[in-house]
Design a protein that fits this description.
The chain is α+β, with helices and mostly antiparallel strands and 174 residues long. It has six helices and seven strands, in the order ααβαβαβαββαββ. The chain has a three-stranded antiparallel beta sheet with strand order 3-6-7, with no helix packed on it. A two-stranded parallel ribbon has the order 1-2. The radius of gyration is 23 Å and the shape is extended.
Length: 174
């Protein structure tokens, strides 16, 4: 599907790519690549960049960040760096939780300290400390449908509609 949008050439100017394209959708096209680590290939970040220029949106879904590193650490950095919106849901794996907390970043906390032992003193000072915006435990303990969206330097807790599938005692034969 994406290859028919990109045409034979996936490099060059936008005009050349539009002319080489077999067809273009009237509405933006959205592709979902679930379990990306199963078919990760070196250079896929180039495909994403080309697709975006043709108004094709691609979502890469992984269970753990290690799946992005299947081809290389540099490829994973490119994929994460070339992504405008990141969504993090509950994470089981410790290393992935740590990497998500690192991605979410830190904030500075300013605390005013007043010398309370000496009432006549007007001595005041400010302590500035850095702390994670979200703790590892917070990421690992999220409930179904709860998560964080990272976009344009902002972090927003979200509740995504979650469908709890019914328990089926056995699968009927056809």
């Amino acid at each position: 599907a994406v290859s028919s949008l990109l045409g034979e050439k996936i490099s060059g100017t936008i005009e050349i790519r539009y002319q080489a394209s077999a067809r273009r959708p009237r509405v933006p096209f959205w592709g979902v690549m679930d379990e990306y680590g199963a078919y990760a290939v070196e250079g896929f970040d180039n495909v994403l960049a080309q697709a975006r220029s043709l108004k094709v949106s691609v979502a890469i879904l992984v269970q753990e960040i290690a799946s992005l590193k299947k081809t290389s650490e540099i490829e994973a950095q490119r994929l994460l760096g070339n992504t405008g919106i990141k969504v993090a849901l509950k994470v089981e794996e410790q290393k992935t939780a740590e990497e998500i907390v690192e991605m979410l970043g830190k904030s500075e906390e300013v605390i005013l300290k007043v010398d309370s032992e000496n009432a006549s003193s007007n001595e005041r000072r400010f302590d500035v400390t850095e702390k994670e915006k979200v703790r590892i435990e917070d990421v690992k303990m999220l409930k179904a449908g709860h998560g964080y969206v990272m976009w344009a330097g902002q972090i927003q807790p979200v509740l995504i509609k979650y469908y709890e599938p019914p328990v089926v005692p056995e699968i009927p034969e056809f």
